[in-house]
Amino acid sequence: MRAIVTYPPTGGLELVNVPQEAGNGVLVRTLYTGICGTDKELVLGRLKFARPQKGHALILGHEALGRVVDPGDSGSFKNGDLVVPMVRRPGGCRMCRMGRQDYCEDGDFVEAGIRGKDGFMRDEFFEEENFLVKVDESTIGKLAVLTEPLKNAMKIREIFRFMESRVKWNCDDSTLECRNIYVFGTGTEGLLISSVFKTMGMNVIAVNRHPLDEGIISFLDRNGIGYLDTSSETLESRVKREKMDAAVDAVGAMDVFKGITDNIQRNGIVILFGTNGQLPSSQYDIIGEIVDKNLSICGSVDGAKIHYNEAVEFIENYGKRFGLESIITGVYEPEDLDIFTKKEKGEIKKVIKWS
Known about the structure:
Blueprint: E1 2-7, E2 11-17, E3 26-35, H1 37-43, E4 58-59, E5 63-70, E6 82-85, E7 88-89, H2 94-97, E8 110-112, E9 116-117, E10 124-127, E11 132-135, H3 147-163, E12 180-184, H4 188-199, E13 203-208, H5 214-222, E14 226-229, H6 235-241, E15 244-249, H7 254-263, E16 264-272, H8 287-292, E17 296-299, H9 305-322, E18 328-332, E19 349-353
Parallel strand pairs: 8-9, 12-13, 12-15, 13-14, 15-16, 16-17, 18-19
Antiparallel strand pairs: 1-2, 1-4, 3-5, 3-10, 3-19, 5-6, 6-11, 7-8
Helix pairs in contact: 3-4, 3-9
């Protein structure tokens, strides 16, 4: 069968023929796989924690949608079911045993298509039923390929709800309509995070360093999400008009974090998701701002099965209303390997169609 592989930690990219794995569990035929920044970093050899499951090659792909072709002994799935596989698999720590491998305590986990486990960029794969999430084809269909990135936004929402309990965050009318949250990054994750917070009743401002493509502006306008291009207006200027009560950093650059801590309101909430482009923290006096403003700051990575289920529910309820289909800007064949290294005009999310 066909598979797209890389060779961690050095990178590279090939479409190869590999034998069908021998395995138990549910046999799934891959329909679509999404490409994200992590895949591109793997191909470029920039993720030093990446490792193959065995040998030298790692099958890529952690965002996937497939169809059950043989449920095996599963009592939860039948032939034809549409399913999304989970990415992170538990180790043996207390949190992993509780099904919260997203809070793994010792790092003894594997992640499909990233570290220690082959991913889903192949024609078929076997999967344990516990790590499959069923989706309704009639209401979601191809949009379910967004489940994996969207589950990250659902975990961020969970963290936010916990952190807002630190102080009374509700407005005088009991809503969150007086609160502004700035989401840094307008890629797939940034747009999905912005969408989730919009449904919570907050005023959302999406922030980018560069002028936004028309497709992104159209998505934001459609959903009543504000936006800021910091190449034409400074963050400081915007915050004077619309205060920053909370922020999500889906970029991961230290200067973005500095901009947040400098401009956020006292008792603000900051959730860090992106991990790219770090600069030495010694360049900035950030600790003083964090302490003086009484900020709540938390990192977020991955998600649990509950977040996958919440992501599916979100797509069912808001997929059409928010126009989530517009986030998928290109559908390609497995042979089109240059999509991993070339950025198309107006690109948001690229997906590969397998069958």
